[in-house]
Amino acid sequence: MSGNINLGRIGGVQVRINWSWLVIFALIAWSLADGVFPAQNPGLSNGTYVAMAIAAALLFFGSLLLHELGHAWQARREGLEIDGITLWLFGGVSQFKSGFPSAGAEFRIAIAGPLVSLALGVAFVLVALAGLPSSVDGVAAWLGYINLALLVFNLIPALPLDGGRVLRAALWETKGDLGWATRIGTDIGRGFGYLFIALGVAMFIFQGSFSGAWLAFIGWFLLQAATAEARYIATEAALEGLRVRDLMVREPVTADADLTVGQFMDEVARSRRFTTYPVVDGERPVGLLAFGSIAALPRSEWDSRRVRDAMIPLEQVPLLSENESAVEALTALSSPTSNRGLVLENGHLAGLLSITDLTRALELRRPLRPARA
Ligand SMILES: [Zn+2]
Fold this sequence. Notes:
Blueprint: E1 4-10, E2 13-18, H1 19-40, H2 46-77, E3 82-88, E4 91-96, H3 103-128, H4 134-154, H5 162-175, H6 178-207, H7 210-238, H8 244-247, E5 249-250, E6 255-256, H9 261-269, E7 276-281, E8 284-290, H10 291-295, H11 307-310, E9 312-313, E10 319-320, H12 326-332, E11 340-345, E12 348-354, H13 355-365
Parallel strand pairs: 2-3, 6-7, 10-11
Antiparallel strand pairs: 1-2, 3-4, 5-12, 7-8, 8-9, 11-12
Helix pairs in contact: 1-2, 2-3, 2-4, 3-4, 3-5, 5-6, 6-7
The chain binds zinc ion.
Zinc ion is lined by residues 67, 71, 113, 154, 162.
């Protein structure tokens, strides 16, 4: 997902927000200040409504964050590596680096977020019932309502919602087939997606209600997300059992870091043209040279620049090991800025792997493995 703003780490988990969240934040604050609070808590000043709206929107943001952190922290307790949390439109997405180790682990990770929402919802309702001043009371009541509404929405048994994950874990546990369980979950996800879109459009047309537009939008989101999840699992199944060593290019042609660009062009690239060359300093791998980046250099600089100056330094290159699974490698090489990685074994260069090698493997394997009916 692009367009993310980094908020730093909370409890060891990287947190980002998508730009779409800023839009939602503004919309929520505006609708609260302009509609909800004046209707629910009449007789307060405009300034108070604005302050209430901003406080409520911020606490809502905090609630979503805690929900996602509930998933992420539980995942860490289960021993899963987490890439981070991205908050966007209707909540968050926790990015896991690898698949779930077991149905039980998926169940506990899936249910952790809704449990946080339940606790928050109940806590805010209790505050709302405590007889505090009208402004505090209004904010707490809305937060209690929205957290409980979120809980109900998230428990719909449709992938990739939390309820869908709970359902998948249960199906996975009973039949022991993750692929089958995922297909049922994502089919239900798509079903709800279409249902929400249809209902939303009908509400919008026949009642002129803007909630209808929202519902249709949520349906569209669900449809997209369920489709993406189904595709991911299909990819995972297609790459099953393959490791980096099966797909990498062994003994790739390397470039010496101290060669000038001119020397590299004459001595290496002229006879052995590739799109990428691992760069070595003696025996030690130090980076990756993209042919495109030196071909773009003006010829007049070829003798003054060295391969070392034109390469991508090792710190910015995805590093893989021979034994890593192809699915993990696919995740590591899926970023638009780094779609090639070096395969290292005890600090030595063992091979080169690109996203192209992986997609080629996918194309070769897919027809051989028809979807299990
Ligand atoms: Zn959740």
